[in-house]
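Lab manual, section 2.4: Encoding a predicted structure.

Procedure: take the sequence of the chain (448 residues), apply the prediction step described in section 2.3, and record the output as structure tokens. A sample record is shown.
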Amino acid sequence: MRLRAAFILLLLLSPLCARAALPLNLKGVPTLAPMLAQVTPAVVNISVVTRSPMEDNPLFRDPLFRRFFNVPDRPSREQSAGSGVIVDRARGYVLTNNHVINNAQEVVVTLKDRRTLKAKLVGTDPGTDIAVLKIEAQNLAELKFGDSDVMNVGDFVVAIGNPFGIGQTVTSGIVSALGRSGLGIEGYEDFIQTDASINPGNSGGALVNLSGELIGINTAIIGPSGSSVGIGFAVPSNMVRSVMEQIIRYGEVRRGRVGVVTQDMTHELAQSLAAGSADGAVVVQVEPGSPGDKAGLKPRDIVTSINGKAVRGSADLRNRMGLIPVGEEVEMRVQRGKQPLVVKLRIAEPFTMTEIPGEAVPQLAGVRVSNIEAGMPQYGMAEGAIITRIEPKSPGAQTGLRPGDVIYGVNRGRVRSVAELLAALRQAERPLQIFLLRGDSRLTLTIR
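Recorded output:
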């Protein structure tokens, strides 16, 4: 009976064995153990100590207030746990999620061999939910990057992380879908979806292929109870690598401005534009004087590729453009009616807001906003409240908001002016979901 069961298992996994050349254990059954022995030492546990809400409230800084309300002099610090991946053992770089280390006072990395190391934050990118840490240690393992662009639905994958803080755990599954976007999880969404179990604490951990290569950073799940129901998401490794390289070089991702607004191709649009395919991003607006305008882009143009890579839709275009640093030249293939075109444009610096006093936002201490007036570059391109100034080291400065961001929504409610923003924030419950336009990109920030 046991021999028959082993034969059936081998039969089911035979295509898998042929493709990935899985070794056999002592009983002749395919196993992932040798691959995992090489990979798992590069996946780490991350412990984070963050400020308690009391530390951000000016009332709690008043000794008389603390004494009157019997508040302890030392507010308790909150701890959380997540996962991370060592991708450069020589320089000690560790990848994780921005939401894992957001507002951290202290970050401690625990290796598989139980060494604990204090980590330094190199930089973060809230738009993709990626953060880069640095540790100093000898004899580190590392995970090599794989090419996420060659992954297909049905490919086998393994998720490694620290679910619920119980310790390193390995789960397996397949790629369920590619290019997932529009989920409202992050600003730049191009997720790999998998049914490998991902639970709270897995955030920042590794999604690897059967060759032991990193093809994604586990980021989010969809589940009614906050636990895995077989729908998990990872940021693709190619996106992660581009973000990491900019963070290491600049301390941040330097996204620029193209000056075009696009939308997805629809069946009706494809018919009216005589498009031969449902893929591509349709140009809706072009900002006068912008790189897109200077390159000759026009409304109703269909962007079909960037630097030789096909564009599936508007979100795909936004994701790809969001990874190209300021100053670099981009080659776009465009369909205008029946005429194919090639245009080149250079990514411009984002606009900065100067000499606009703005109005203070009590719920976002240190942030000042203004209505979008005639003469501003965003006038006619967006509706909302534009951030004119953020005081350094203020609570608002730690949220990920930036001057020039246009806030157009709060907790799923639409915002078209400063008055509407202030009214929405007065009624909103935390955590706040802030929907904003940054350059040509739409982002969602969660503020607790």
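Check your result against the sample. Residues 1-20 have pLDDT under 50 and may be disordered.
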